[in-house]
Amino acid sequence: MKPTIFTKIINGNIPSHKVYEDEKTFAFLDIHPVTEGHVLVVPKKQVEFIWDLDPSDYQAVMTTVQKVGAHLREALGVPYVGLRVVGVDVPHAHVQIIPFTEASELDYHPDMTAEPDHSALAALAEKIRL
After folding, report:
1. pLDDT tens-digit readout, 33-66
2. What's this model's pTM, rounded to 2 decimal places?
3. Domain tally, the chain
4. Would you please indicate which residues are annotated as catalytic (active-site) residues?
5. Nearest in space to 50 (alpha carbons), one of 6, 85, 93, 84
6. What CATH number does the domain containing 51 carry?
7. Distance between CA 84 and CA 38 in Å, rounded?
8. Residues 6+ apart with CB under 8 A from 56
9. What is the residue range of 11's domain?
10. What span, in angstroms and rounded, lies between the C-alpha atoms of 100 and 80?
11. What is the largest CA-CA distance in the chain?
């Protein structure tokens, strides 16, 4: 299986704005966020769909999602944190954690061709890092 962009990020071949890492998972800021603090949690084991993870890896991902999501809510002072598990765009299982204040914010579709503001992302990652 060819390494995905997420595997390359986990391995340090592509830079990222990491907010959390443990033995089985890696969490980093989305460079085209729906809202400020939009984080992706990925298993270190590369599988295309979250449902293909073995139970212990699935549990590790969801434990990280819970930990990071609760932390984002507090660190960013938002009332809500939503999750998306869609399984498209990158063939590597991932859960999106999206902090928000109003449900309408979730309808935003970022310009995927826009150049990310890496200095702002780095500052935010420092603020919310676990």
Report:
1. 999 999 999 999 999 999 999 999 999 999 999 9
2. 0.92
3. 1
4. 94
5. 93
6. 3.30.428.10
7. 11
8. 24
9. 5-128
10. 5
11. 40
